[in-house]
Amino acid sequence: MRNSLKCCALIAAAFAGAAHAQELPKTAAFEAFGKGVQIYACKVSGNTYAWALKAPDATLSDAKGKVIGRHFAGPSWQANDGSTVVGASLNASPSPDAGAIPWLVLRAKSHKGSGVMASVQYIVRAHTEGGAAPASGCDAGHAGAEARVPYNAVYLFFRG
After folding, report:
1. pLDDT at 122
2. 114 Cβ partners below 8 Å, 6+ apart?
3. From CA 49, how far away is CA 53, in angstroms rounded?
4. By CB atoms within 10 Å of each CB, which of 54, 72, 125, 140 scores lowest?
5. What pLDDT is attached to residue 18?
């Protein structure tokens, strides 16, 4: 796990860019494995229909498979102790895997509670599988419809 954390710390620094790279700690505080769905809604803008991300809905597990929290709209991550961090995207990079959602670096914009998420300052989403918006099926006959696309990702949480 430590090699994964160090690797992703370097990735995070590269994604965040020079201005933010100096702020990132050199190692992550902890990692979680997300498994769930990315929920998309079929929306119309003018005469164009497109799938738009509504929210993620995933469980977060540790390396042994024990559920330690959840990931949901915000984007938010909540630990089993009730503490929550909400992030704002700093940078995105396409996943090397076709059909996978991008890798992200996010900065904490708010916290709730005094548990494990209270001191998280950065979140990195990497090693994504699946979760990309559907390529078709969003049209006038499906406006308002939802699609739930399975995905997996590794989340790295950095403390300040």
Report:
1. 96
2. 83
3. 13
4. 140
5. 35
Q: pLDDT tens digit string along 81-115?
A: 999 999 999 999 999 999 999 999 999 999 999 99
List the Cα angle 114/118/119 in 5-degree steps.
135
Contact between 155 and 5 under an 8 Å Cβ cutoff? The reply is no
- In angstroms, the CA 137 to CA 143 distance is 10
Percentage of the chain beyond pLDDT 70 is 83
Q: Which long-range contacts (C-beta less than 8 Å, at least 24 apart) are formed by 103-110? A: 103/11, 103/15, 103/127, 103/128, 104/15, 105/12, 105/15, 105/16, 105/20, 106/75, 107/20, 110/85, 110/86
Give the count of beta carbons closer than 10 Å to the beta carbon of residue 150. Answer: 12
DSSP type of residue 95: -
Q: Can you read off the two tokens belonging to residue 141?
A: 């006959």
Residue 7 has pLDDT above 70, yes or no: no
